[in-house]
Design brief:
By secondary structure, this protein is an alpha/beta fold. It has ten helices and 29 strands. The strands form nine sheets. Strands 16-15-17-18-19 form a five-stranded parallel sheet, with helices on both faces. Strands 24, 25, 27, 28 and 29 form a five-stranded antiparallel sheet that branches. A four-stranded parallel sheet has the order 10-9-8-12. Helix 5 links the parallel strand 15 and strand 16. It is globular.
């Protein structure tokens, strides 16, 4: 039994429980508002960020304060606690999407949930394959449900928060309708990248670790869903894009090493799988190339496409599907959870083997989906490269300056104009200005200035693109005329700053 002092129950419903922090619930405890039976429709809240999953519901049980005299002496938990469920701690996509991101932003909402808080995992799983990642979220060791009995028979949480925010999730897994991006996505790439930078800091990965060399990272799977001609693919990518190719795998590399490599890569290539959630660490402008086995329609399985195309992520996403049945290796004899279908009737096996596309389906045990997704694939290298070339708009290998990526110039400053006339009755207009104040803090390769000159009362203007902060105009400049001059700065040809205040110039 637990009591939850000053708990914000977030975020399926936002009721607050106020409990005397010196003891378990007493006669002075109150609950606002009065929920009545509404808390059982179907529950007070979800312990997970996964929406309305019936294994994640939370409710509490009430007892009169007098019942404490019949119970063991309570043990008080001194830490500020975040009490939650992990959804699937053995799957990297679930770890990041369902747990780590929601933990991070739940903690951001409340000042007393900081790195000195403690995480309590109540779903009953063991540590799982990625427990070290959960340790990044707090300076204190997370505690599992199984470990709580070692603390005492009756625990009282003096200050705790129950449940996780749902605002960071971008995907639903198909429990009620076929899987796909959420209908109302509230998170942007800015929040994803803020979280990614937090993880990079906890892993002691900084921009100083980056290399000026461009390279492609190929995620290699070693257990299933293999690329059987991986060596051929690596060579072709290196030759086509004239850059080094690097293979990484979850089995052979540390998590920190993988993230360090991805965080500076130009392109990430991988078969569809949970490891692709690490594309959140790619630099802006990089490309994500997701490969799909035969019969698996990329449009039906889009967690990583959705991530890559969130506003602010600024990644280029490419999907390639194997269209040749001869280039696939299936394993019908394996156990069902690894894609085997021999447990099915002969007619159903035959139908699945002949099927060219997995129909839309619900999670999580559709045999045709499992059969196709666990196939190995021989990648048609020429068709893959053709798809990459057709989608990737910026030339791979030309790295953007990290500081200037997505940073826009400010207004030009101290703009002035002066008119003059020559002996040949040629009227000239000289315009000068100072650079935007933020330019000196940015490493920008390509800085230009756009100048518009419009004769007052006319609808047309003369545009100029200049490389310097001064220029003398003579073409079409007339004497005794008033001109309106607008000036703005442009970074890297595409990042357009605001126009400065209009300059009124008289000749």
């Amino acid at each position: 039994m637990s009591s939850y002092g000053n708990s914000l129950l977030s975020l399926r419903r936002s009721w607050t429980l106020h409990v005397n922090p010196k003891s378990c619930p007493s006669n002075s405890s109150i609950m606002l508002p009065s929920l009545g039976s509404r808390r059982f429709q179907p529950a007070l809240l979800d312990l997970s960020s996964v929406d309305d999953h019936n294994t994640q519901y939370f409710n509490f049980v009430e007892l009169p304060a007098a019942a404490l005299q019949f119970m063991p002496k309570p043990v008080f938990v001194p830490d500020v606690a975040l009490i939650m469920n992990r959804f699937n701690p053995d799957n990297l996509m679930h770890v990041f999407h369902d747990d780590l991101l929601p933990i991070f932003y739940t903690m951001q909402q409340f000042p007393d949930l900081d790195l000195d808080s403690r995480l309590f995992f109540m779903e009953g799983w063991g540590e799982g394959s990625h427990f070290d990642l959960y340790k990044l979220m707090s300076n204190k060791q997370p505690l599992l449900k199984e470990q709580l009995k070692n603390l005492g028979r009756l625990l009282c949480f003096t200050r705790s928060y129950v449940g996780l925010t749902k605002i960071t999730t971008w995907y639903q897994y198909g429990f009620v309708q076929p899987q796909g991006s959420k209908a109302n996505i509230l998170v942007s790439g800015n929040e994803i990248r803020h979280f990614a930078n937090f993880v990079l800091g906890k892993l002691n990965i900084s921009s100083a670790d980056s290399s000026s060399e461009d390279y492609i990272v190929l995620f290699s799977r070693t257990m299933n869903r293999l690329i059987v001609n991986e060596a051929e693919l690596l060579l072709a990518l290196a030759q086509e894009f004239q850059m080094k190719t690097i293979t990484v795998s979850l089995e052979d590399h540390s998590f920190a090493d993988i993230v360090r490599l991805i965080s500076n890569a130009t392109m990430l290539v991988s078969m569809h799988g949970a490891q692709l959630v690490l594309s959140m660490f790619l630099p802006k402008g990089a490309s994500v190339v997701e490969l799909f086995p035969y019969g698996v329609n990329p449009d039906h399985y889009t967690p990583y496409k959705t991530l890559a195309t969130l506003p602010g992520m600024e990644l280029q996403y490419v999907a390639w599907q194997n269209k040749e049945v001869a280039n696939t290796i299936a394993y019908p004899e394996r156990p069902w959870e690894q894609g085997g279908i021999i447990h099915l009737g002969a007619s159903e096996q035959k139908r699945i083997m002949k099927s060219k596309e997995v129909p839309r389906h619900l999670c999580c045990r559709n045999p045709e989906w499992l059969f196709r997704i666990y196939q190995d694939t021989k990648v048609d290298v020429s068709s893959l490269i053709q798809v990459i070339r057709s989608v990737v708009k910026t030339k791979p290998g030309i790295r953007k300056q990290k500081w200037a990526n997505g940073l826009y110039p400010g207004k030009v400053r101290e703009s002035r104009c002066q008119a003059s006339s020559s002996e040949a009755s040629l009227t000239k207009l000289s315009v000068t200005w100072q650079i935007p104040w933020n330019l000196k803090y940015l490493k920008v390769r390509d800085v230009k200035y756009e100048v518009w000159i419009q004769e007052q009362g006319e609808n047309t203007y003369m545009p100029y693109i200049l490389s310097y902060q001064n220029h003398t105009f003579s073409e079409n400049i007339k004497p005794s005329t008033t001109y309106l001059v607008w000036i703005r700065c442009i970074f890297n040809k595409t990042l357009l700053g605001p126009f400065a205040e209009v300059l009124v110039c008289k000749t």
